[in-house]
Amino acid sequence: MSGKLTRFRIETLHNIRTIDVRITDNKLVLVGENGSGKSTVANFIYFFLTRQWHRMLNYKFKKVLAVIDSKEVVVNRSELEKIDERILRRYPSEWIREFWRLLREHSSEELHSNPERLYSFLPEDSPPSQSIKEIEEILNTSIIDQVLYLPTYRRIEQDLRSIFPELEDPKLRQIYERLKRKAGNTGYIELVEFGMEDVERTIQRKMEEVKDNVRNGLNNLTGTYLRDVIQGAY
After folding, report:
1. Of all helices (H) and strands (E), which one includes residue 216?
2. How many helices (H) and strands (E) does the chain have?
3. Residue 165: CB partners within 8 Å, gap ≥ 6?
4. Residue 59 phi/psi, 5° resolution?
5. How far apart are CA 147 and CA 167, in angstroms?
6. Which pLDDT does position 15 carry in this prediction?
7. What is the chain's Cα-based Rg?
8. Of residues 70, 96, 95, 106, the one with CA closest to residue 186
9. What are phi and psi of 195, to 5 degrees?
10. 189 forms bridges with which residues in the sheet?
11. pLDDT tens digits for 160-185?
12. Does the pTM exceed 0.85?
């Protein structure tokens, strides 16, 4: 990573506890039991580095403090909520129609990475939060490389080879180009796809086995009844 992140603190996470981690040489290893918050910390760091403020609002917290390139950056949840409030205010119907048009034509990530699209038709008395703008300027200066996020949930369906566009495999090339278009100019790309094809195949196979067992069992039962009737065993 281009910038040097040395500290990351999440204050009053879930209104319960504060997590404060020190990072050495841009490397951090988190070890803990399931449910201890490892994935949450990783998510917060990812959302912070890629300026995805709207995704941070999915969590309850007071503020996030980070030290990057010896600069202390503080993101208050209240500041992020102001951005949402600005969008949720009641405006003239023309503004609302324009807002929904943008939502239909552009993804939330694209709008977030290009907030000018939203700010262009906001009233003059509702400028974007200056503190958030300052934070984004610091991050844009410090983080100049593309951020890759590879969470280790169920399993990574997509191979890391898709990172390298020089690969000749047409399927990997197609996957890479699709992800590249999806990322646009956000500065980050999510290379993980939670594929369920193998699960679907397993379910389909089991369902076929159940159908065969029911069919065979019914045929055997019917044959047994018919035999008993013919032999008078009933």
Report:
1. helix 197-231
2. 9, 6
3. 173, 176
4. -115, 150
5. 21
6. 87
7. 27
8. 106
9. -65, 140
10. 148
11. 555 555 556 666 667 667 766 766 66
12. no
